[in-house]
Amino acid sequence: MDKIAYADFAKLEMRTGTIIEVARHANADKLYIVQIDIGSQTLQTVTSLVPYYTEEELMGKHVVVLCNLEKAKMRGETSECMLLCAETDDESRSVLLTPEQVMPNGVRIV
């Protein structure tokens, strides 16, 4: 495992958020398009959580979001953040990271 300096870790802007909208991607079987309220704004991500969560399970879920990724296009949709998950090496399980207690949207993860 490569080591990084704290200064590199500090560049990651991770915040608490709430999933406020979930839709299946029209052109990809395993993708959702998700809107996440992070307090000061709403961010969109394209995420491959279809095999692990239903739309109903995701709605309203409190999550940890990596907010300062460069925007990317995934199957024609803009993804501007990343939901943090724990995933097994064989990808048989993927679990969203969530705050232990509900925190206001936008609280920084340190």
Topology at a glance:
Layout lengths: L5 H5 L3 E11 L7 E6 L4 E6 L7 H4 L3 E5 L5 E3 L2 E3 L2 E2 L1 E3 L6 E3 L14
Antiparallel strand pairs: 1-2, 1-4, 2-3, 4-7, 5-6, 8-9
Keywords: Aminoacyl-tRNA synthetase, Ligase, RNA-binding, tRNA-binding
GO molecular function: aminoacyl-tRNA ligase activity; tRNA binding
Pfam families: tRNA_bind
Summary tags:
single chain, 110 residues, mainly beta, OB fold (Dihydrolipoamide Acetyltransferase, E2P), 5-stranded antiparallel beta sheet, two-stranded antiparallel ribbon, 9 strands, 38% strand, globular
CATH architecture: Beta Barrel
What fold name goes in the CATH topology slot?
OB fold (Dihydrolipoamide Acetyltransferase, E2P)
Quick one: overall form? Answer: globular
For CATH, the homologous superfamily is named as Nucleic acid-binding proteins
Strand content: 35-45%
Largest sheet: 5 strands, antiparallel
Uncertain regions spanning at least 5 consecutive residues:
none
The tally of beta strands, per DSSP, is 9
Q: What count of structural domains?
A: 1
Write down the overall mean pLDDT.
96
Q: Estimate percent helicity.
A: under 10%
- Element order, helices and strands? HEEEHEEEEEE
Pfam families: tRNA_bind
Keywords: Aminoacyl-tRNA synthetase, Ligase, RNA-binding, tRNA-binding
Organism: Photobacterium aphoticum
Protein name: Methionyl-tRNA synthetase
